[in-house]
């Protein structure tokens, strides 16, 4: 089933009449219905397979994206042009769904809300709804189901969204656990009740207060949760009736019998079904009680770890004592995954493959013939469907058609019943790819042959010249799975015969020119040679011109990136496509690693415009002397504003914390207006035109600077409190006091007293409160200090804070951004930033955390940075196999390791004391713990050996290396080879004094001898190659995969040496900081270096030049590898985040285009590539939309 569900009026599955103000109800989608006349076959990049359901709101389709991923697509009914409310409703649905973290919910993947058919794309959940599953739940299974639904509600409410229609129909039992779907009538907590008083939902699951006309809040969802859990246990709706009034009466007066529930659920469900919303627990409290297992809603007791369950709930607290919500959600989601329902909803590709498997061998040969005639490729290179006549199809195809009745029609012409099949069926995709170039040729042949037949086989309709040559060449040697029909063969034969006849007619005329031809041969030979030389020179000049143009464009991209990151991406992609120069590659790396992911430009460019970013980061306010405009930064659409300003010169505007008010500073003072209506409110503060004036909201007051004076102004009363300070000022969210430097000023008295200890009194400082007022961050010359506002004690600090950067808290207070010359995001408690600071061309004037990431305003541009990764479970071990085929992690305190997403039992571990090493082919994994090592088969997890070989007492990397020969272990004075499987000792060789060692693909062990400074074969003791001249004792050593090169790290620089010649390859690589890892690309041309300061750098070995900028990571990379073909660099840190960085120009350009989401406009092309014909710099940009 999809992640959407459509409604018409019903109660408990029966159709009823409802009042005009009640748009409620349920229709279960009919699975697998084919498309009907009027349905689209494609929506954007998605191909449709059939209808999942239809109702008053619209239609939900099963679709497939270009990669063949199954999705659900909801398309609005009605005309959004005539009824803009339809489009607005879908925008709200998309906003609601995209704000919710994907814990036990169906994610919204994409949306196109501006086209003639607005649609939303959701992940497809394979499984029945709780109502249609036809079963009940009990015991632990019911508890886990209740926990999963509570997890979804907690994630929904944490995003500021109220679902408003939770019911059994909107809980899908997917293979990976329950999912809550359908945000079609969800609301964010900021939305107000509509003016019509419209009540939406399903009556049997509505909370009592909703029937009383109150707004459905989070407590209403909690009530519905209790009702859904009761339904799951009984298979019956808890509040039923023959008519709507009867259902309402039951909801308002009846209490279901809870004895059917297990003891652990009775308390939470009883509390959830309370008639009074204030008596119901929050979803977060429910989830904590359910995870604890004892059914207690005593949250403080549970968080101290005093519950009756085996779960230590106190571990759900962060360092500052707050509830660790991501960890709580992860625990709840993990509980839900244990009750995943088996999928009985096969995708199109599975159905097609099953049908194909039933064919006899001779019919399997006919299948590609049939399906390749059902598709074609247009002149623009786009895949399209076609409907061939039965006469086009080979004999025996009826047997193939009979095997695919669900997918292909048995009509004339034949057509695909499921248009998405070319994307959904991997086998058909492979056939299409193999014949893709020929499909366009075949389309032209088939069309022309049909026209030739219809026109009476006239010569004028036959191919000739190069068109015929291409067609004959393909028909003779280019075809793979397409056999020409007799009519097509006749057409090509006739065209070839006509060409031969015409050639004979000209032969006599040609003989008359033979003598002249002989006489011209000598001159012709010379001219031909000269022509060839000129052509080669022209090609070379064109390549040089393209390379120069590529380098120029790369420089332009680098210059544009600071102010417009999207333009920087597009220009660097154009540079790479023009010529794969080193400059283009470096610029592309900068584009794809830029933390900026989106940009919005204020359409207003007048010099008298002033701007502000709303505190939630969602909107840009643009004001000129006559009008205020409000723009949605994410969509680029105007969402509000007003006219009627008096025409005065504006100095600044500022929005209140809730976005309802706008302070406008003009050349005569400061006034406040309602942002929605433009109505002036409160009292105006007058200020002389001759002095500087700035304004900002803080703690419900206005901070106004007039000249050198700072005032806290209450615009409601007109009272201004003057603060004798030159420091930055912040007002506590409760409005009772202000902080400036080391002083606290009581409000409204203005009386000063000693403030927070340690704040610099003689330097510039910039304070900021967290949204809940529990923390104060102060930036000064010493860095950033964070205080607990209740105790005034220092609780955190960031020494690497940029001096003068203004702090900005995230809404939950866990992240903090520094806004100065650079924009940097930190997680409180971490020593390093989550991402390297971005340096705008112009210092930002404002910044705010939005759901899509941090946004900052610089001049007239709002730049969105990628969201910070969530705080991860603490890992004490991570490793990538060579080539990246396998990923291993180990969580602190766990007895299991996670290999490629699968948890496997591995025994007990001491914290941070394990070493994990893959064999070169990734088939074996060595786990060293202390003096013991075990080796596992990564495919079966069978233990191949368990040894205590006698390791060196010194901590060293790679002391246990599984190889093609067996397991090599490093001792104090020897290396030992052990058999795998079995663990028998095969040989032991002396260990010289080494700087580092490695194993080749054949299992040969080599090392860099510290005394001879050359690579030696450790099994034979013989040198491999020449001696090297190293300037000092290196800190780290890394071998290339083929052992032909070795990289050595010294203080602040790394060098690469050729192991055969002993010569240094290229120049020094100027790296920063100590290393966690280093790795060569398979071809040896690139070297990647992971520093301990959360950065990653990529180097061109031959040139000794860094490729692109230093890349900031969310955590220091502990393991690096390149994929096969050196196409990508992979990195993973102890946060478990796997980072992928393309390294080829082609892949980099594709990634840059994907991030940009569009191509260069014609105006941009003319500006940056004058004189060149316009073309799409990102040919596949449409594929990346959204």
TrEMBL record:
Instruction: List the PROSITE patterns hit by this protein, alphabetically.
Output: PROTEIN_KINASE_DOM (PS50011), PROTEIN_KINASE_ST (PS00108), WD_REPEATS_2 (PS50082)
List the protein's name. Tyrosine protein kinase:Serine/threonine protein kinase
Among Pfam families, the record links this protein to: nSTAND1 (PF20703), Pkinase (PF00069), WD40 (PF00400)
Q: Which organism is it from?
A: Nonomuraea gerenzanensis
A GO MF label = ATP binding
What Gene3D superfamilies does the database record attribute to this sequence?
Phosphorylase Kinase, domain 1 (3.30.200.20), Transferase(Phosphotransferase) domain 1 (1.10.510.10), YVTN repeat-like/Quinoprotein amine dehydrogenase (2.130.10.10)
Under SMART domains, the record lists: S_TKc
Q: Where are the WD repeats?
A: 1080-1109
> Which ranges of the sequence are coiled-coil?
none
Transmembrane regions = 508-529
InterPro entries registered for this protein in UniProt = Kinase-like_dom_sf, N2O_reductase_N, nSTAND1, Prot_kinase_dom, Quinoprotein_ADH-like_sf, Ser/Thr_kinase_AS, WD40/YVTN_repeat-like_dom_sf, WD40_rpt
Indicate the secretion signal residues. none
What keywords were assigned to this record? ATP-binding, Kinase, Membrane, Nucleotide-binding, Serine/threonine-protein kinase, Transferase, Transmembrane, Transmembrane helix, WD repeat
């Amino acid at each position: 089933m999809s992640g959407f569900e459509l409604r018409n009026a019903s109660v408990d599955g029966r159709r009823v009449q409802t009042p005009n103000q009640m748009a409620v109800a349920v229709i279960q989608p009919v699975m697998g219905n084919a498309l009907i006349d009027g349905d689209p076959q494609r929506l954007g990049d998605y191909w449709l397979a059939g209808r999942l359901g239809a109702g008053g709101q619209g239609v939900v389709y099963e679709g497939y994206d270009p990669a063949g991923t199954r999705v659900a697509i909801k398309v609005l009914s009605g005309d959004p042009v005539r009824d803009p409310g339809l489009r607005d409703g879908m925008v709200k649905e998309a906003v609601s769904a995209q704000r919710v973290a994907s814990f036990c919910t169906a994610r919204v993947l994409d949306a196109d809300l501006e086209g003639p058919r607005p649609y939303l794309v959701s992940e497809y959940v394979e499984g029945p709804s709780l109502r249609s599953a036809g079963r009940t739940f009990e015991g632990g299974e019911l508890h886990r189901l209740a926990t999963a639904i509570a997890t979804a509600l907690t994630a929904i409410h944490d995003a500021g969204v109220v679902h408003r229609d939770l019911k059994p129909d909107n809980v899908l039992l997917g293979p990976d656990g329950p999912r809550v779907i359908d945000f079609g009538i969800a609301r964010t907590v900021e939305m107000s009740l509509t003016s019509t008083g419209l009540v939406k939902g399903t009556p049997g699951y509505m909370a009592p207060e909703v029937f009383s006309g109150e707004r459905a809040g989070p407590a209403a969802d909690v009530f519905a949760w209790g009702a859904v859990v009761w339904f799951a246990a009984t298979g019956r709706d808890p509040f039923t009736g023959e008519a709507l009034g009867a259902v309402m009466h039951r909801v308002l007066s009846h209490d279901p019998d809870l004895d059917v529930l297990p003891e652990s659920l009775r308390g939470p469900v009883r509390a959830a079904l309370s008639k009074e919303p204030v008596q119901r627990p929050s979803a977060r409290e429910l989830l904590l009680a359910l995870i604890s297992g004892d059914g207690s809603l005593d949250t403080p007791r549970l968080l101290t770890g005093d519950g009756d369950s085996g779960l230590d709930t106190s571990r759900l607290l962060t360092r500052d004592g707050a509830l660790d919500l991501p960890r709580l959600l992860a625990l709840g989601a993990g509980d839900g995954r244990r009750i995943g329902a088996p999928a009985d909803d096969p995708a199109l590709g599975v159905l097609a493959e099953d049908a194909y498997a039933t064919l006899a061998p001779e019919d399997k040969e006919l299948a590609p013939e049939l399906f390749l005639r059902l598709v074609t490729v247009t002149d623009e290179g786009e895949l399209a469907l076609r409907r061939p006549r039965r006469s086009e199809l080979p004999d025996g195809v009826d047997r193939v058609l009979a095997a695919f009745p669900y997918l292909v029609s048995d009509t004339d012409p034949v057509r695909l019943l499921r248009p998405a099949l070319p994307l959904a069926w991997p086998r058909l995709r492979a056939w299409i790819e193999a014949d893709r170039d020929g499909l366009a040729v075949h389309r032209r042949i088939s069309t022309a042959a049909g026209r030739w037949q219809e026109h009476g086989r006239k010569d004028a309709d036959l191919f000739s010249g190069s068109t015929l040559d291409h067609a004959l060449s393909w028909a003779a040697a280019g075809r793979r799975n397409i056999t020409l029909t007799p009519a097509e063969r006749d057409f090509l034969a006739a065209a070839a015969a006509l060409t031969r006849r015409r050639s004979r007619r000209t032969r006599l005329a040609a003989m008359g020119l033979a003598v002249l031809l002989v006489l011209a041969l000598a001159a012709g030979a010379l001219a031909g040679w000269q022509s060839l030389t000129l052509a080669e020179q022209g090609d070379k000049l064109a390549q040089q011109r393209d390379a120069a143009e590529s380098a120029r464009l790369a420089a332009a991209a680098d210059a544009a990136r600071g102010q417009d990151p999207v333009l920087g991406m597009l220009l660097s992609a154009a540079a790479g496509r023009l010529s794969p120069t080193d400059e283009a590659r470096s610029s592309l790396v900068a584009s794809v690693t830029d933390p900026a992911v989106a940009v919005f430009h204020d359409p207003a460019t007048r010099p008298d415009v002033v701007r502000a970013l709303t505190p939630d980061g969602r909107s840009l306010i643009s004001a000129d002397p006559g009008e205020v405009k409000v723009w949605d930064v994410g969509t680029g659409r105007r969402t509000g504003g007003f006219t009627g300003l008096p025409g005065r010169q504006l100095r600044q505007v500022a929005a209140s914390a809730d976005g309802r008010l706008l302070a406008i500073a003009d050349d005569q003072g400061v006034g406040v207006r309602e942002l929605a209506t433009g109505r002036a409110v409160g009292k105006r503060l007058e200020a002389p035109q001759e002095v500087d004036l700035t304004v900002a909201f803080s703690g419900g007051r206005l901070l106004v600077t007039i000249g050198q004076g700072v005032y806290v102004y209450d615009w409601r009363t007109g009272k201004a409190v003057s603060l004798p300070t030159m420091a930055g000022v912040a007002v506590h969210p409760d409005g009772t006091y202000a902080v400036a430097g080391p002083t606290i000023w009581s409000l409204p008295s203005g009386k000063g007293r000693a403030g927070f200890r340690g704040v610099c009194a003689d330097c510039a400082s910039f304070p900021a409160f967290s949204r809940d007022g529990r923390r104060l961050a102060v930036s000064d010359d010493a860095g950033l200090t964070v205080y607990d506002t209740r105790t005034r004690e220092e609780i955190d600090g960031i020494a690497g804070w940029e001096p003068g950067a203004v702090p900005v808290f995230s809404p939950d207070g866990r992240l903090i951004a520094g806004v100065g010359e650079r924009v940097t995001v930190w997680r409180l408690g971490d020593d390093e930033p989550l991402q390297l600071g971005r340096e705008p061309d112009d210092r930002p004037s404002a910044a705010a955390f939005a759901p899509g990431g941090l946004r900052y305003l610089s001049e007239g541009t709002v730049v969105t940075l990628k969201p910070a990764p969530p705080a991860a479970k603490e890992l004490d071990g991570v490793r990538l196999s060579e080539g990246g085929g396998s990923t291993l992690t180990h969580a602190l305190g766990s007895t299991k390791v996670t290999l490629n997403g699968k948890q496997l039992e591995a025994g007990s571990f001491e914290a941070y004391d394990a070493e994990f090493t893959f064999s070169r082919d990734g088939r074996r994994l060595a786990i060293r713990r202390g003096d013991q090592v075990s080796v596992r088969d990564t495919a079966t997890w069978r233990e191949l050996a368990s040894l205590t070989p006698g390791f060196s007492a010194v901590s060293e990397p790679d002391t246990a290396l599984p190889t093609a020969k067996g397991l090599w272990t490093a001792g104090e004075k020897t290396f030992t080879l052990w058999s795998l499987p079995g663990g028998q000792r095969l040989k032991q060789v002396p260990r010289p004094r080494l700087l580092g060692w490695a194993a080749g693909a054949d299992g040969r062990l080599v090392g860099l001898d510290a005394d001879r400074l050359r690579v030696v074969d450790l099994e034979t003791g013989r040198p491999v190659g020449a001696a090297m001249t190293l300037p000092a004792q290196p800190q780290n050593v890394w071998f290339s995969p083929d052992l032909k090169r070795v990289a050595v790290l010294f203080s602040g620089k790394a060098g690469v040496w050729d192991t055969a010649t002993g010569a240094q390859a290229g120049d020094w690589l100027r790296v920063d900081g100590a290393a966690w890892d280093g790795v060569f690309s398979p071809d040896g041309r690139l070297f990647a270096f992971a520093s301990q300061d959360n950065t990653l750098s990529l180097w061109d070995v031959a040139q000794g030049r860094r490729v692109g900028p230093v890349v900031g990571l969310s955590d220091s990379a502990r393991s690096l590898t390149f994929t096969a073909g050196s196409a990508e660099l992979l990195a993973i840190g102890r946060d478990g985040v796997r980072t992928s960085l393309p390294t080829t120009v082609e892949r980099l350009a594709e990634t840059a285009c994907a991030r940009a989401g569009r191509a260069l406009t014609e105006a941009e092309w003319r500006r940056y590539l004058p004189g060149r014909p316009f073309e799409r710099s990102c040919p596949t940009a449409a594929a990346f939309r959204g």
